[in-house]
Amino acid sequence: MTTQTTTAPLDAIIVGAGFAGLYMLHRLRKSGFNARVVEAGSGAGGTWFWNRYPGARVDIESMQYSYKFSDELAQEWNWSERYATQPELLTYVAHVIERFKLADGIQYNTRVNSAKFNDSTGLWDIDTNDGQVIQARHCIMATGCLSSTNEPSFPGQSSFKGETYHTGRWPREGVDFTGKTVVVIGTGSSSIQSIPEIAKQAKQLYVLQRTANYSVPAHNQPLDPAYVADIKANYGDLRARGLAQPLAYDINLNPKLCSELPPEEVRAELDRRWAWGGLPIYGAFADLLVDAKTNSIVADYMREKIRSIVKDAKTAELLSPKGTFGCKRVCVDTGYYQTYNLPHVELVDISQIGIEEITATGVSAGGRVIDTDVIVFATGFDAMTGSLDRINIRGRGDVALKDKWAAGPITYLGLMSAGFPNLFTITGPGSPSVLTNMIMAIEQHVDFITDCLEYLRANGINHIEPRHEVELVWGDHVQEVANGTLLYSCNSWYLGANVPGKPRVFMPYLGYPAYAEKCRDVAANGYEGFDLSAA
Ligand code: NA7
């Protein structure tokens, strides 16, 4: 394929048209920068574009999981349900594109193969699948934290004659399971959301579970207009409450320690949270993620709930997680546990004997041979670094980011990495990202980057990059914060433990408010910790 270099270099190229890329484009254009988004998909929405599996919906309440940067947008938009479905999220994305006139700045069906810093021009050369080389002063990765699928390969997999799907790459036209036998591999959030829906169609459904996960009911429902009006009248208050909490999500954080409370109050608090539903369960007690005893009280409560829902005692026992509550991201479901009471749904324990083989007609796993028409891989993502690793990113001296990060990602604030001038990662590893209401973390990063680019322009600075010693200290701090909690005690994707061979490093930063304050200080002190140069 012939390559074609764009004539005038852009001020910024933005890779990805999800929530991050769209807001980044909007901010940069408003500030007079010449920016463009390139997107591999044929449409916008990022993770919501690809995760079209049945039952896909956001697990943070939509009144909070939506942009806050424009009050007009927030006031005019009406979510129909407490937790928006994937299609409604895409409708919202389309509305945002139209409202802020972003369409002409987005180039779809364009996958970035490589992004290379050119030492002689000081620009980034972005190589795409259609043979273009786009030059830009700044390269902004808005590639998402959960967009590179984890697709383990099992012996014999290619011999399977039936249909296979990955929840994170679901076909646009949907899948009809009617009358079919279906095997679902995995019991994370994607599986927990899709299983009740797949069960409605499938003739027989087998769920292959390696590790049980905690799940809290969503209690999803249509949004009451009075409730919405009440929030909209004081939207700023809700946003401010959210931003003051560790997850940048108002979960009504209880400041009390579990150990301070009498048992009946502990129980009442958990009952209230279970009845409310969703992730606010994390806010039940201030010490939930730091005190093992508190954590085991909550875990016991969850197991009791599972037993009360699932009729078959053996299945209930298998569905009961053994590990730390909240160590892996807690799931939010609609009728997940109830689905196992259906006669055509069976949980298969593969914790001892895993998936030995996939044959032409089915799966050998857990000591069983299961014939099936369809296999659904709900095996998750190569989180946080996967989407960056897929691009050949090279900094000064042709050093590959992947090589620099071989023992784990090294960043300053999850925003930049030394040796890669003018390369920004929105919600990159080392920032709160996946441990927040993502849209709040995205907005905070986009605002930081825009302010930074304005500062560079105003001061005649062409390049910015963090100092290596500063990013090492930050990396240690990220680990130290996580180490002070129970989040290190399981094999979560936060630690990269779900992908064989990935270094065990805690990637997100826990604690949005302290992080945002740190970023404010860094900017206020002339981008302290960064080298700025006119060269
Ligand atoms: P997750 O949460 O990473 O779940 C993936 C599931 O797939 C999990 O149950 C895994 O078991 C299972 N898995 C992965 N590899 C294998 C192999 N090789 N054999 C058997 N089972 C396997 O991904 P999701 O897509 O559900 O959710 C990701 C996030 O999206 C979620 O946290 C929300 O933030 C939204 P394991 O637990 O590793 O034993």
Characterise this structure.
With 535 residues, the protein is α/β, with parallel strands linked by helices. The chain folds into three domains: 4-147 and 383-533, FAD/NAD(P)-binding domain (3-Layer(bba) Sandwich); 151-214 and 326-380, FAD/NAD(P)-binding domain, CATH 3.50.50.60; 223-311, no CATH class. The protein has 16 helices and 21 strands. Strand 14 and strand 15 form a beta hairpin. The chain is globular. The mean pLDDT is 97. The structure holds ligand NA7. Ligand NA7 is lined by residues 146, 152, 167, 185-191, 210-211, 329, 354-355, 378-381, 493, 498. Ligand NA7 binds at residues 146, 152, 167, 185-191, 210-211, 329, 354-355, 378-381, 493, 498.
Low-confidence stretches: none
Give the names of the bound compounds.
ligand NA7
Q: Overall mean pLDDT score? A: 97
CATH homolog superfamily of the largest domain: FAD/NAD(P)-binding domain
Instruction: Give the overall form.
Output: globular
Distance separating the two termini: 34 Å
Name of the CATH architecture of the largest domain: 3-Layer(bba) Sandwich
Classify the helix fraction into a percent range.
25-40%
Structural class: alpha/beta
Q: How many runs of DSSP E, i.e. beta strands?
A: 21
CATH C-level category of the largest domain: Alpha Beta
User: Nearest-angstrom radius of gyration?
Assistant: 23 Å
Q: Tally the helices: what do you get?
A: 16
- Give the CATH topology of the largest domain: FAD/NAD(P)-binding domain
The number of domains:
3
Indicate the proportion of strand residues.
15-25%
